[in-house]
Write a structure and sequence with these properties.
By secondary structure, the protein is of the alpha+beta class. It has 12 helices and 12 strands. Strand 10 and strand 11 form a beta hairpin. Helix 10 packs antiparallel against helix 11. The chain starts with a strand and ends in a 24-residue tail after the last helix.
Amino acid sequence: MNRFDYHRPATLAEALVLGATPGAAYLAAGTNLLDLMKLGVARPGVLVDVTRLPGLDRIERLPDGATRIGAMVRNSDLARDDGILRDYPALAEAILAGASAQLRNAATVGGNLMQKTRCRYFQDMASACNRRSPGAGCDAVGGVDEGMAILGWSDACIATHPSDFCVPLAALDAVVEIAGPAGAREVPVTAFHHLPGLTPAQDTALAPGELVTAIRLPPAAAGFRQHARYMKLRERTSYAFALVSVAAMLRWEDGTIREARLALGGVAARPWRATDAEALLAGAALGRDAFEAAAHAALADARPANGGEAKIELARRLIVRTLMLAAAGTPARIPALPASPFAATEESLTHA
């Protein structure tokens, strides 16, 4: 690990001044950043500890019906919040699908949003990686990992974003609140993570020195509470990143879908909002035929990287399954194996 200066500011204004220092990085729980520092992938010269900043650890219900979640709210606290469980059940289901209970007790909302790719080539200093070293090339292209992107990738990078939490956020039209040297601004979650193009090192919309302060869910997001699910397909039952994940939400009346929300994880460098599939579902008769058509629409532009044809089919099947579960209704309690297609039956449900 390289040498660095450490600061723990007492105010947001002080943190932003320190964060504008060349080579600075913001530190919250550090569940991703510290690992990357130990590997030599991240080498900040200044660490700005934001864990003590006031007001960033709150979940607030706003007068217009929106919900504001501070960037320092712990994942486990968010997943157990009564209002989140009631109004945004797919969000809680996604959080409980990620990592272990110990990590969820440490990891934060802002840190989850800022996760770096878990691509093995990104984390291997002996491999060429354009995200880590712009212009170096991408050894993942033509490499041995079949879990790479199938949507939105380029020859410069085929890695995927690893977050579970961000997938339902994208489906719910969440907004990221940002503070920086130039003032405050907002960015939709769907635009926060950049697709690689020719500049994969520019992986988020944050400008130098900017800090995520909160995520805001609009009032309409709670309208899907009765028919919302998140599912995750992974190589082992728990503590693994998604090969593919799906957040599906429906509003329907008299057998006709009025509105649908659909987002995919593990398929691109950002949570992938499937707007074409949503448009196809709106006005369709509720049922498997509509769900299968939507699954094909969602993956119409998918192209495999590194022999990823199977991943496209996995994604289609998981979309259909998640939509079927959403149509059946949000469970009263989160499944004991949250987000897993192999989850136990109703006899063993829990808010783990």
